[in-house]
Amino acid sequence: MLQNIRVVLVNTSHPGNIGGAARAMKNMGLSRLVLVDPQGFPSHEADARASGASDVLESAQVVATLEDALVGCNLVLGTSARDRRIPWPLLDPRECGQKSVEEAGQGIEVALVFGREYAGLTNEELQRCHYHVHIPSDPQFSSLNLAAAVQVLAYEVRMAWLAAQGQAQRALKPEVNSLRSVELATSDEMERFYAHLENTLVQIGFLDPAQPKHLMARLRRLYGRSSVNRSEMSILRGILTETQKFARGEAHKRKDQ
Ligand code: SAH
User: Fold this and answer.
1) CA distances, 32 to each of 104, 223, 226 (Å)
2) Cα 7 to Cα 236: distance, rounded to the nearest angstrom
3) If you average pLDDT over residues 55-81, what whole number do you get?
4) How far is the CA of 251 from the centre of ligand 1 (A)?
């Protein structure tokens, strides 16, 4: 589905930016790069900035005009660093990601078009686009580096794609989810743990049953927040068992003295 989304760079003058854009795309799972009349490409500089994404550069299509780049496209999204004062349907990057993925998912060919480093896209080029996309940067300093702008949009495409796959949560919080995927302790296991904890705390003299002072409630709140899984539970129970053994040994020693 992501192969239906192409990134079009128009008249790029710094080959390093082409490499940077290729890398940004590959990181986010995009692979189709179309270059309209690029300057100094192919070049060592582009390869160096692409890092491990030289395959995206090698398969990049080089064409003479924006029209050639948009052949077969049903949805064209043109980016702009400034408000050109042409009333045009405007999307923010998030909406752009969602729209691109929605349409690409239905087999529609989508183009994300980026302009020249020094002059952006011409009004004429922008008017070839169905929507304009503006990254809401500081108006006092609104122009991002070309490869950085590609990164922002490619990231939003990925997030929309992950959400479409129902995987956004997993991608956002891998560590939390890898813990969750281990079976959590059940509530009856937690109850047995709390009983064991309470007995132990009484045994070692930390909890006075005559004056419990909400200690068990506070500990329940603490462990309740922790999403304890089964293996962590057996560690906790092991610590309690050893603590009780130790306490009994100490008590015997005291009796013997
Ligand atoms: N001086 C140019 C800036 C071009 S920056 C101008 O005023 O338009 C090079 C390209 O990066 C732009 O054509 C656009 O494709 C992209 N870009 C940079 N900043 C952007 C922003 N804030 N929103 C959307 N695209 C941006």
Assistant:
1) 13, 49, 44
2) 53
3) 95
4) 76
Binding site membership of 117 for ligand 1 (Cβ less than 6 Å): yes
CA of 104 to the centre of ligand 1 (A): 24
Do 157 and 91 touch, CB atoms closer than 8 A? no
Counting residues of the chain whose pLDDT is more than 90, the rounded percentage is: 72
Ligand 1: residue of 10, 12, 18, 79 to mutate (most ligand atoms within 8 A of CB) is: 79
Residue 165 Cα to ligand 1 midpoint, Å, equals 30
Going by C-alpha positions, the residue among 124, 123, 112, 120 that lies closest to residue 155 is 112
In the three-class reduction of DSSP (H, G, I as helix; E, B as strand; rest coil), residue 205 is classed as coil
Higher-pLDDT residue of 198, 167? 198
Cβ-Cβ contacts under 8 Å for 126 (sequence gap 6 or more): 78, 80, 84, 86, 88, 132
Q: pLDDT for 212-221, tens place per residue?
A: 988 988 888 8
Sign of the torsion angle spanned by Cα atoms 148, 152, 157, 162: positive
**Average pLDDT rounded to a whole number, residues 61-70:** 96
Write down the pTM of the prediction: 0.72
The answer, yes or no, to whether any atom of ligand 1 lies below 6 A from the CB of 147, is no
As a whole number, mean pLDDT of residues 183-207 equals 89
User: Among the atoms of ligand 1, which is closest to the Cα of residue 114?
Assistant: 15
CA-based torsion, 21, 138, 77, 170: positive or negative: positive
Q: Residue 199 C-alpha to ligand 1 middle, in angstroms?
A: 66
